[in-house]
């Protein structure tokens, strides 16, 4: 059962990358008025902007390092960085939803963009949670097997 679930990891990585780029655009629009007024954006908005950049770096590591630079890959790294990313997305999405989300925007594009950023934040949290479950399963499964001298491809590769 879990082997079938792990087979979807490349697709989930691509979907997560697309959603992260969408979130980057949404958060750039949400944060942009603060650069015009030369004031600091609220911390929740800045944190969500950080989350998008962090996630792009994490996705780059998860997708490229096991395949092209296996010497620089550690089995525990995907588990740790994905767990951190899950926490970041959950905390950032909750903070943004609690402080700035409105149920009715009345045609205000800024408000609608903010609500879309909250929704995509939770989608990304769910996608990274899926990846965390698969990487945790792979890590626990690899600990049960005896070590061999030949390297086997990682589930994300």
TrEMBL record:
Pfam families xref list: MARVEL
Protein name: MARVEL domain-containing protein
MARVEL domain: residues covered: 11-132
InterPro entries: Marvel
Source species: Echria macrotheca
Localisation per UniProt entry: Membrane
Keyword Membrane: yes
Domain of life: Eukaryota
UniProt entry keywords in alphabetical sequence: Membrane, Transmembrane, Transmembrane helix
Keyword presence, Transmembrane helix: yes
Membrane association type: Multi-pass membrane protein
Segments passing through the bilayer: 7-31, 43-64, 76-102, 114-137
A GO cellular component entry from the record: membrane
